[in-house]
Records
---
Amino acid sequence: MMHAILAREAGGPEVLAPAEVERPVPGPGQLLVRVSAVGVNFIDTYKRSGAYKVSYPFTPGSEASGTVEECGDAVTGFSPGDRVATAEGTSCYAGYALIDADKALPVPRGVDDFTAAALPLQGITAHYLINSSFKVEAGHTVLLHAGAGGVGLLLIQLLKAKGARVITTVSTDEKEQLAREAGAEHVLRYDGFAAKVRELTHGTGADVVYDGVGKDTFDGSLAALRIRGTLVLFGAASGPVPPVDPQRLNAGGSLYLTRPTISHFLLTAQERRWRSDELFAAVANGSLKVRIGGRYDLADAARAHEDLEQRRTTGKVILVP
């Protein structure tokens, strides 16, 4: 048996409750991992609430770090005792989790278990956003929403390493300080941000906008773009964006709009390792800082979800079994 978090029906954070469940057994190609830490992400809240369909009872969690306890048949490249992480697990809000070996990421020396759990999903998201969804180059002006969030703080650092000019939005003075420490040149509040971006770019607009907020910022994000600029809509923290008339992209300046998801940017083992190896190497050498803004006991998963949804957190939220 092991400790786990179960949601027996869709609902608010209160549906998440501790439970005792059977410890899983690894099948062919799987690793049984003793979980050291679990990353808490908005996708977990979407599944818990019923916004994304899942089967109940449901244990959230796709991101975790831990130590390999047992290897299933046909596993190569891993042995018991190896430290691994993943952004593509299932049911990770638990003491043990099954991870497909081909989706396990080796954790190098110099990266602790908490950081290893905090990095994969948001780090890989940041990596594909600026290398694949829109390839950022030196001199580009970038508008990034929610600059003090988990993805936001990583994105600012990675964008600065590429030589981009970073403008970001935040909601409080505390979050502004965090965004500036990460390297953002200009930190705005959400009210009237599109007009302020125009001012900062002498009327031109941003080359790209990274928008993980969604409904509340979408219109302003389009308005902040330069001619032939790109809006990368990668989340919906404020709610989903209503249907969009493509003619708006024409009227805004022949704009580009994309709505990526992480699985489409992890199509091969080579792509997965390219992204994860670059990120873990940057953390290990100190050039990329991962801020863990909230650490909760596994049994307090409901409070962690509530704090995340109410924007009480900065950086990454993790659970510790």
---
Amino acid sequence: MAENLKTENIISTRNLVYKKSSILTDNVMHYCPGCGHGTAHRLIAEVIEEMDIQAETIGITPVGCAVLMYNYLDIDMQEAAHGRAPALATAVKRLMPDKYVFTYQGDGDLAAIGTAETIHACNRGEDFTIFFINNGIYGMTGGQMAPTTIPNMKSSTSPYGRDVEMMGNPLKITELVAQLPGTYYVTRQAVHTAGAVRRAKKAIRKAFENQSLKKGLSLVEIVSNCNSGWKMEPVEANRWMEENMFQYYPPGDIKVDGKILST
């Protein structure tokens, strides 16, 4: 009987395809079906678990869809005022330099309300990681146009599409901060396919590992959909993202080990 149970356990372990990270809590996520936030959360949790740094990690989330991230990851977390996560992360990392510190921010937060905090933290080369979720709109507050809304993209405040002549150009914040001397690793990824998920996880791990090098700030942008804000079904939203968002925000590394890659 015992031998049979042992054999069954071996077979079960070998056939295991996926196991939820122990860093993830059992709370049901509030994100809309098809949203990339849940996948991004899972990848961060898996990397923290694999690196065995749960007790050494501090996450900071401001206002936005990810404000309840503390409800889903079993790590120390702190909320920040809208856009101010990099400022708070600066204080935390300077007070506890041996901790792994990260911010998790949307585009309306990071590239609009928190532009100053983002740019100055990057320019100073603060030794923490920024995870930047870019879905091209303000997701939580009603789908308004954001600095990252691409030309002709519709939103609740640009129902006929973003008119560049009137509303200005989208802000490529990731390319912008890559030019700053304080950034060490800057990359843009996605999480809408299995291959994209693998690449995003690799980037997330590299960003965390860079903190031990103490050479500057790492920023990982994840281009994602917002099917609710875009008024699309999840599959349609992913297709639209590939055909439109990726044309303006192409995935790939932009700066590695302090060196900007040729384009």
---
Amino acid sequence: MLRISNISITFNPGTVNAKKVMDDFSFEVARGQFVTIIGANGAGKSTLFNVIAGSVISDSGSIVLDGEDITLTPEYKRSRHIGRLFQDPMRGSAPGMSVEENLALSAGRGGWLSRVSKADRRDFRERLALLDLGLEDRMKQPVGLLSGGQRQALTLMMATFNPPKLLLLDEHTAALDPATAEKVLALTTRIVEEGSLTCLMITHNMQSALALGNRTVMMDRGGIIFDTAGKERAGLTVEDLLVRFRNASGRDLSSDRMLLT
């Protein structure tokens, strides 16, 4: 589904602050894979998502999604086929618009009440009820009045209302309290599995990296240092990941955020 070939990215090129963050990076994801991605701050995880989504254009290399070369395709056009959630629950939805209007926009039905039919409203209500967050009774309320967990769950539904070819989850539960994060992760798993979606999920929680999905990738300094799936992955522990990081990078993991989660 996704093929990244020989990507190189330099920030601030031609200046004293020039920094190469990726060099000849290649990565492939098969259709239907759910890949969890871990790595310390600065490992290149978000840069990888940015170059896939089109918010960063690479210096060289190519990106092919479902057989189509999207290397130079603008971000807004890629968004038709790539769904993305961010760490900040405030991103991904329009706070001044109602829950119903946000869903109408994501469904491609205009976003204005006059354009939403009774059948649409029934559909929205049924989908919201599956979230088990009471949103089906708050369809007229502005999204800006929702809690972080409610808003992130709604954004997840919006990103997958019309199933994308690729779903990018950029630490989408990091800003939520543990109980809400667990509920959103369970919802994520269900939506990805039911839709047979191809999904990449960045996480700092190493336990989640092994428990969710069917493949785990570890990044460091703009490259992949460990990639595991199948039986090998099933038998791994968090301690095993720490050892693999040490062996591959030559140093101990220093990210308190990863170690504490």
---
Amino acid sequence: MAFNDRFLRACRREPVDATPVWLMRQAGRYMKEYRDIRAKYDFLTMCKKPEVAAEITLQPIDALDVDAAILFADILLPFEGMGIDLEFAKGEGPVIHNPVRSMADVANVRVIDAEEATPYVAEAIKILRRELENRVPLIGFSGAPFTLASYVIEGSGSRDYRYAKAMMYEAPQAWHALMEKLAEIVTRYLKMQIAAGAQAVQMFDSWVGALNPNDYREFVMPYSKLVMDNLADEGVPRIHFANNASTLLELVSEAGGDVVGIDWRINLDEAWRRIGYDKAIQGNFDPIALFGPVESIEARVKDILDRADDRPGHIFNLGHGIHKETPVEHAKALVDAVHKLSKK
């Protein structure tokens, strides 16, 4: 079997024989094989058992024929080593029992040694590189400093980010001190993944759409840029995904990365023009459109490919993670349509 390097070539804006496609959260709850494993373990245990995380990572490679694997993990895994008391509460998602809301709290956040704090992540990557040899590349990932800061300050998911924004505005020194630590933690965590064998890395800024451009520029951009700059010499593509960030695209692009990931709230051609053609682009199918009929999925795939206009550097993806109730056959239809309609 020949190694499929479409994804890596597209990251470098090189010609490809067909547009590469992978799906955010492609290893997950919409697949029966995943649910069978989930019935045996709690979520954190699945992440911390390298052989289990590797098995889950591989499931969509076989089922969907995607062009890249993304490590099964969670953006919050570094928290434990940082001294953050994290629990994945049933039905509630992640809950943090000691949120960081003052300068004294920030002082207690430990800047982890990633190898010591999350050795199971490196081990899963090593297993996967052996399993994926001559197949597809492996993507490692992390949360971005802002999204991680929002979690540790809010204590859970949030709609309005009241505590995070309050710290920015009322205690900017504490905010910047926390973001400096998080930028260093994210850098170390991603460098560890690259050293273990990740062939590309993605930084998820899932919550950054909560900000206006001025606040992004002042409170977030310097730290996202620090991570991207610190990874520039690692020799692997850097994907910078900012969700709900159509108002921030130029700034996200300026913050760095070889590839900018976009959501579905903007047309791909407009987004690429604003990002700049000197960068690759990743996106941007609405994940909920996967519940539509296959003909509708194919039509939407064609529209996105037409907007990419055969320009080198397009990686097809969803505009956010795949929904847990998505029919697997519709995810497969999406992947097949991308390959069929873009085949050179």
